[in-house]
Amino acid sequence: MKKLLTAGGIGAGVAAFAALVMVVAALAFSVTVDGTSMEPTLRDGDRMFLEFWAHDEIERFDVVEADAPSTVSGGARILKRVIGMPGDQVSVSPDARVLVRPEGDRRTYVVDNPAWSAEAGVEQDWITVPGDAYWLLGDNWNASTDSRSFGFVDAAAVHGRVVFRMLPIGRNGSIARDVRLAPVESGSPR
């Protein structure tokens, strides 16, 4: 006897094939966190989905994957948070506050990142981010080699932004977007 294919059988086969394609695509367009520089936001071993098509749409506070400058680990790939956009002025004050003057804005803002430790600061004078670069920091100040030590990262070296934790399953989901710019209050040290 010939087996007849039913619409349900074909539908199940198509669904299984689509699921397999999605899993392969997700793994192909993902990165694994290596190290502790982005803790507590990202942890060593987390598998993150990479929006590789978004490398031209990077926004302040996105977590991106980029090639580190060749002076750092031979240009290894890194995951860091975008703090300084092209044209911004950025400084790290003696009291470990990261200050930003966005391009075209005369006001000074402090970066409010709940992940940062107030005790871990490296002072840096005001610098201006070049038009084709970003200034990146890790969320774990004490364990991060970032723009405080290697400077700017070329926009062309950014591969995309990471927005979703795929693994481990118990912690999967979107990355919290709780970092913001807060105006520096008048009378505060600048």
Characterize the structure shown:
The protein is α+β, with helices and mostly antiparallel strands. The chain has one domain: Ribbon (Umud Fragment, subunit A), CATH 2.10.109. 14% of the residues lie in helices and 32% in strands. It contains 2 helices and 13 strands. The strands form 2 sheets. Strands 1, 2, 3, 4, 9, 10, 11 and 12 form an 8-stranded antiparallel beta sheet that branches. A hairpin with a 5-residue loop joins strand 5 and strand 6. The protein is elongated, with a radius of gyration of 21 Å. The mean pLDDT is 85.
End-to-end Cα distance: 85 Å
Count of the separate structural domains? 1
Please give the number of β-strands: 13
Runs in which pLDDT lies below 50 for 5 or more consecutive residues are none
List the helices and strands and how they pair.
Blueprint: H1 7-28, E1 30-32, E2 47-51, E3 63-67, E4 77-84, E5 89-92, E6 98-101, E7 109-112, E8 124-128, E9 133-137, H2 147-150, E10 153-154, E11 158-167, E12 173-174, E13 180-183
Antiparallel strand pairs: 1-2, 2-11, 3-4, 3-11, 4-9, 5-6, 5-8, 6-7, 7-13, 9-10, 11-12
